[in-house]
Amino acid sequence: MSHTGTLPGWLKPANRLVKLLHRLGVPLGTIHIITIPGRTTGEPRSTPVSPLTVDGRRYVIAGLADSSWARNARAAGHGRLTRGRAHEDVDLVEVTDPAVRRRVMTAFPTEVPHGVQFFIRLGIVEGAEPAQFAAAADEVAVFETRPAVHRPAAAQP
Predict the structure, then answer these.
(1) For the residues 57-77, what does the mean pLDDT come to?
(2) Which of 35, 49, 109, 121 could share a disulfide with 60, CB 3.0–4.6 Å?
(3) β partners of residue 54
(4) What digits encode the pLDDT tens for the residues 12-59?
């Protein structure tokens, strides 16, 4: 199944609502907010993501491989994952190995069941079957999150 690669009109308002609920402390499944410096302005840009762990490593998926947050992640290579009042600075390493991307995508519907509808609404998959997610692995961007080596300038002595 292929999609156009453009953001659907419902996505920005939905992301704003999720970020507002997050700030108010309303837990939403596995959703975290990832904040990454903008690639041109350097200003922090935030979007909801649902980290998942596969083979002992943690990943986040950009449903649209060329989305702004994926491009920012590629350019910056780091960000901050926030859930409630807890935050963690992470390095973001794009997964280029197709087999690893397939394993992560195959695990997604089991690890993040509430996120399946997002991929259906984007037109990436038709249902929650792991095989459909595996088949779509080349249409998304997958980033491994690792404990940050980079430290924000304000945090350095």
Answers:
(1) 95
(2) 49
(3) 57
(4) 776 676 666 667 676 667 889 999 999 999 999 999 999 999 999 999
Task: Identify the burial level of 111 via C-beta atoms within 10 angstroms of its C-beta, where 0-12 means exposed, 13-18 middle and 19 or more buried.
Answer: middle
Task: Say how far apart CA 19 and CA 25 lie, in whole Å.
Answer: 10
Structure tokens at 31: 């959703």
- Lookup: tokens for 16: 């704003």
Residue 116 near residue 106 (C-beta atoms within 8 A) = no
Q: Considering just the CA atoms, what is the radius of gyration of the chain in Å?
A: 15
Going by pLDDT thresholds of 50, 70 and 90, the confidence category of residue 156 is: very low
